[in-house]
Structures are given as C-alpha cells and as structure tokens.
Amino acid sequence: MKILGIESSCDDTAAAVSEGVQLLSNVRSSQLGHKAFGGVVPELASRAHDQAITSVVEQALDEANVSLQDLDAIAVTLGPGLMGSLLVGLSFAKGLAAQTGRPLIGVDHLEAHKMAAWVDIEEQDIPHPYVALVVSGGHTRLEYISGHSLNDIRLLGETRDDAAGEAFDKIGKMMGLGYPAGPVVDTLALTGDPTRFSFPQSMLDQPYEFSFSGLKTHLRRFLENEYGVVSDLEQDELKRRLGNDLPDLAAGINVAITEVLRKKALEACEDTGARTLVVAGGVSANTLLRNSLLASCDEHDIALHIPPIDLCTDNGGMICRQAYHLVMNGQHEQPLEPYARQWMRGIQS
C-alpha cells in the first residue's frame, strides 16, 4: 500500500511516500523567515506553506519514483496546529484526492508523532501496552496505550502551561541564542558543566503533570540579578554579558527540563506496569534526554523507542505511518470535516 503523507501544522512543509511501514521518501522545507520575530508568525507561515507545498510534494513523489496514479491513498494532518497552516495542507490534499480519486485519510498530528517510533516496524510487532511521552514545542504529555485502537489511548497528564520545547525556545531567547533556540541550547550544553548552575525541576510532586513557566521566570530573574540582563538588549549584547558562562547555563537548563521529562516518563512506566516507552516530538532529538532515558530504561529493563533524528520534528513520514496504522486497524474512514472544524474551534477559542 503506497501512501502520500502531507504535513503543514506549523512552520515545516513536509511530504513523504511510504509503502507499508517502509518510507520511500521524506522531504521537508523549513521556514527561516520567523527568526527575525523570535517565533512563528501564523500569517507568514501559511503563506510560506502555500508557496512551498507543490514543490515539496513533487520532490517526495520523484524521490520515491512514484506517480500520483501509483498511490493507494493520500494522508494529511488535520490538527492540532496553526489554522492557516493546516488549511493549506488540507486543501492541497483534498485537491489531489479529488484529482486522482484516491481516498483521503485525516491524521491527528500528535498520534503521528508517536507512530514515527514505529516506522519500519509492522503492526503485529508493536508491543502493547506502552507509555508514550510526546514532547515538542507545543505539547508535553504522557499517555498510556493499551492496544491498537484509538479508544485504547488514555491521557495520563500534560503540561499546564508552556510545553518543554517552548520553554527551551523562550529561555534560549533570553540568553541571546535566537529562534529556534532548543537545538542551540542542546549543542552548547554538550560543552558545559551541568553541575555549576542548579535550576528548579518543576512539579515533581504532581505525577504526570508538567509546568515549565516557573523555570522561565526563575531564569529571567537570575539573569537580571547576576548579569544585568533585561528584555530590550540585543542578542549580541546578551551573549556578550553571559560570556564564557553560556555553555554552563545551557547545561543547567538542559538538566532542569530533561530530568523532569525523564523522571515522569519512568514513573508512568512503573505505575502502569508498561515495559515499553515511546518518546516522540521535536524535543526527543535532545541529546541529553535521549542518553539519560537510554541509560535509565536499560537500568529498569524498559524497552525504549525513539525515532531517528529526522523523524523527531514535524515530517511527512510520521503522517504516512499513522495513516497506515489507521488503515490496518479499520479506523481510517472517519469524516474529515467535523474533525477539522473541531480543531479550528479549539484554535479560535
């Protein structure tokens, strides 16, 4: 079964082609115009998707050596995400489906992130039950998945304010690291001393719940008191004031965020009895998180599944894999329009 997957939920225009659980191509175009604004501007994002989506889909088809008529289905992200960005991908996918007569499969963005861990793994080989930690710029949540059906997913807990990826980006911006700052913090932390600065690890007394806004406030006050950092300083001046302390600060922040994620994920596995942990989303590319979870899961005899780096951030491959999962379990024929309208109402409210 050949599936074209289209993803446009935020600022990455992506498309991929799969055959069964195997990816034949995976193409992504990342938008760079948001760096000047320190975050994603929804209107600019939707316009950039509109400009890029045709060439991205064509490249995905070319790299897979597949034509539109060779496809068995077209899959697209329905939400959650930015309304304008989602509409570009959905409208394009609906046009292709109408042109080719192929079925259109709507995919939940968060469910697709989890399924990125199962690319190249057949349905019957996915172990159940398992705990999933979905951690990205917009979401941080723990789930318990007892079976293949969407009805077998139980939300254990989620963030009450900022997501982990959002915290990385906002804190990095305070330190003059630009946007997106998460990967820069990760790289800097590799050369820093993680024990020099100790920052608070939040909500450890609340199982499965997350909160990172307090860490952001704590760091802002710390930088003001210790380095004279204020919000209207230019990025170069921020980095100058922090100087040689920047890697150590990055390492301390990295520990404060990733340790909360690690501890709560392991706690969820122990409490539910699950012996498999899936970690997915953009923050699952973080080096410290991957290494610390690998060591902890090995110590507790828990099987850890994390997607390869190129499948951690938003991509078309995860859309293909989730669509195939829905087809294999007879859950792919849900009506798209009510689902899409539900996400739109949630975004607008």
Question: Explain this structure to me?
Answer:
It is a single chain. The protein has 349 residues and is an alpha/beta fold. It folds into 2 domains: 2-116 and 313-348, 2-Layer Sandwich (Nucleotidyltransferase, domain 5); 127-306, Nucleotidyltransferase, domain 5 (2-Layer Sandwich). 45% of the residues lie in helices and 17% in strands. The protein contains 11 helices and 10 strands. It has helices at residues 42-64, 83-100, 109-115, 164-174, 182-189, 213-227, 235-242, 246-272, 287-299, 316-328, 336-348; strands at 2-7, 12-19, 22-30, 73-79, 104-108, 130-135, 140-145, 153-158, 276-280, 303-305. Strands 3-2-1-4-5 form a 5-stranded mixed β-sheet, sandwiched between helices. Strands 8-7-6-9-10 form a 5-stranded mixed β-sheet, with helices on both faces. Helix 1 packs parallel to helix 2 (83-100), helix 3 packs across helix 10 (316-328) and helix 4 runs parallel beside helix 6. The longest helix has 27 residues, at 246-272. The radius of gyration is 20 Å and the shape is globular.
